[in-house]
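Example record

The entry below shows one chain as it appears in the dataset: sequence first, then structure tokens.
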Amino acid sequence: MCTKVRQRGVTLVELLVFIMIVSIAVGGILGVMSLATGKSADPLRRKQALMIAESLMEEVQMADFTFCDPTSPDADTATSTADCDIPENWGRSAAEPGHGRPYDNINDYVPAAGTATPAFDVGGSLADASGDPFDVSGYTATVSVTPAALGICPSPPGGACVGGPGTGADAEALLITVTVSYDGDSIVLDGYRTRYAPR
């Protein structure tokens, strides 16, 4: 007597379902890996942008903040722009055509109050204060300098508050904003500089 042995295995339908499930799973994993790989440089680019912004902010904050142009003979003693032979104003003066970065006064970094200016470019790329290009690409930077009101009131109470916004070099405080842009994103740093001495 002959007995039939039943064959064991997978049917064609089962095999196709298995292939489809595995393909979907592999596609999802590859998509996640691709996204993670594409974004892996972002923290590095952001840290580089932050370091550039901090460096440029420090450069601007270290510049003199005088009533007079620093080349004026009374720059160390003047208590207002009226006391100056060469008063300081926004933008670089005609008396300093060859003077490069770092500029001798904070106001020299911008042509007007509150105007965002690419003051850090040398030949179309970002550079440090000595004119050496940064060893990175894809970054741009602007700076704006705006008179700021700090509302510092003297004693006794009832006296006039100082630190008003002002319009030019007579302002007692300046708000400095450095913006570094990269890859469609940007880092913005704000800092203040107050007038604590003639220089």
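Notes for this example: The helical segments are 12-39, 42-62. The mean pLDDT is 79.
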